[in-house]
């Protein structure tokens, strides 16, 4: 038996990857409904050897839908969630619309799969940096009890959508040609530059919103309100795939050898270290892959019970599209 699956935001950076992941994973689909704004209506997109025409997302889009994967921004999710749930579809959302809602599970299948089954029609995908971070940290947390995370992120243009990727390419070309270029999507010139994450600055907390998402969403998924998370999120002129430098402290003393063994066995994780070549995980190597790749795992001698590591993950895949499809797979496997 196959399902009826809808993708709201099918033409975007994440939506395009959702179509590819559904096809690659052979998710059982009878009908795939591709939904976007009126700008894309009538456009065709390829899935499993067929051309599917993009339809305008509206209140009637979800009749007969089993799983609705949303990646069209939080405003669109909030606008159509009611109609979607009323139609009986399970809404799996990539935006921040409902992530911190007590009635909405926030799920990474490798981390807290059981939470998904308590859903009341909506399941949220965490923020991409948080998914990538916790996919790697969860096996270490199970062994030694995570107490503190200090993260520095190096975030690619793709995290801000297709328009930001286009802007990075166009801005770089203009820079090399010595031509003026005024950014429209991101706040500052991106080529050969880096700047603090473009989410709003939360004055009372002293963090930008992206940094608070890493703290609040990690606490929610690990069911630990005391978890200490401090991060600095930076946009770097990389087209696709985020990187994170993580410094993490545990309740119990970790062993470096066991950390390698746990990560080698962890689902969705790959350890990559080539010490002779001084080659560690890099966005260009990791882009397009499903695994989060970790390397440079070291003991931090300046703090008790602390490890340091370098983590790279394709945030369009594990940080968004892949995680959403994995949630649908988790639910479908229980039926
Ligand atoms: N990029 C990432 O790495 C990432 C990671 C995690 C979560 N997310 C979240 O996923 C969502 C999408 O991100 P993205 O990067 O894919 O953005 P994007 O490339 O800008 O794509 C946006 C999508 O939303 C559609 N859309 C916009 N306005 C619409 C409307 N009024 N009605 C129906 N569809 C509409 C667009 O359709 P048109 O093509 O017709 O305009 C397009 O398909 C956002 O909530 C984002 O925060 C993104």
Task: Explain what you see.
The chain has 335 residues and is α/β, with parallel strands linked by helices. It folds into 2 domains: 137 residues, Rossmann fold (3-Layer(aba) Sandwich); 186 residues, Dihydrodipicolinate Reductase, domain 2 (2-Layer Sandwich). Helices cover 32% and strands 26% of the residues. It contains 9 helices and 17 strands. The longest helix has 17 residues. It is globular, with a radius of gyration of 20 Å. Bound molecules: NADP nicotinamide-adenine-dinucleotide phosphate. The site of NADP nicotinamide-adenine-dinucleotide phosphate has 29 residues, from α1, α2, α5 and α9.
Keywords:
binds NADP nicotinamide-adenine-dinucleotide phosphate; six-stranded parallel sheet; globular; alpha/beta; seven-stranded mixed sheet; 335 residues; single chain
Furnish the topology, listing elements before pairings:
Blueprint: E1 3-8, H1 13-24, E2 29-36, E3 44-47, E4 50-53, E5 55-56, E6 67-70, H2 74-86, E7 90-93, H3 113-116, E8 122-124, H4 128-144, E9 146-155, H5 162-176, E10 195-196, E11 201-202, E12 207-208, H6 209-222, E13 228-235, E14 242-250, H7 256-265, E15 269-271, H8 283-286, E16 292-299, E17 306-313, H9 317-333
Parallel strand pairs: 1-2, 1-6, 2-5, 6-7, 7-8, 9-13, 15-16
Antiparallel strand pairs: 3-4, 9-14, 10-13, 11-12, 14-17, 16-17
Helix pairs in contact: 1-9, 4-9
């Amino acid at each position: 038996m196959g399902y009826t699956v809808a993708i709201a935001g099918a033409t975007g950076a994440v939506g395009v990857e959702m179509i590819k992941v559904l096809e690659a994973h052979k998710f059982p689909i009878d009908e795939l409904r591709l939904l976007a704004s009126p700008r894309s209506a009538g456009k065709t997109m390829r899935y499993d050897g067929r051309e599917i025409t993009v339809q305008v997302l509206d209140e009637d889009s979800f009749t007969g839908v089993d799983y609705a994967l949303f990646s069209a921004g939080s405003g669109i999710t909030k606008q159509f969630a009611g109609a979607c749930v009323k139609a009986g579809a399970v809404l799996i959302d990539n935006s921040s619309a409902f992530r911190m809602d007590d009635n909405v599970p926030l799920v990474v299948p490798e981390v807290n799969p059981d939470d998904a089954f308590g859903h009341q029609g909506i399941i949220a995908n965490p923020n991409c940096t948080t998914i990538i971070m916790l996919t790697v940290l969860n096996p270490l947390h199970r062994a030694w009890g995570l107490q503190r995370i200090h993260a520095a992120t190096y975030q690619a243009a793709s995290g801000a959508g297709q328009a930001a990727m286009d802007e990075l390419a166009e801005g770089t070309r203009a820079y090399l040609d010595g031509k003026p270029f005024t950014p429209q999507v991101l706040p500052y010139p991106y080529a050969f530059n880096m700047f603090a994450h473009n989410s709003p600055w939360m004055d009372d907390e002293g963090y930008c919103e992206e940094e608070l998402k890493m703290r609040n969403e990690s606490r929610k998924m690990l069911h630990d309100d005391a978890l200490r998370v401090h991060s600095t999120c930076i946009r770097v002129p990389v087209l696709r795939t985020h990187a994170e430098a993580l410094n993490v402290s545990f309740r119990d003393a970790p062993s470096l050898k066991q950390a390698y063994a746990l990560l080698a066995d962890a689902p969705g994780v790959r350890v990559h270290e080539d010490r002779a070549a001084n080659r560690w995980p890099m966005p260009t190597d990791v882009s397009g892959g499903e695994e989060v790749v970790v390397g440079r795992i070291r003991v931090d001698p300046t703090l008790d019970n602390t490890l340091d590591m370098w983590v790279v993950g394709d945030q369009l895949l594990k940080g968004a599209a892949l995680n959403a499809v994995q949630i649908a797979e988790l639910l479908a496997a229980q039926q």
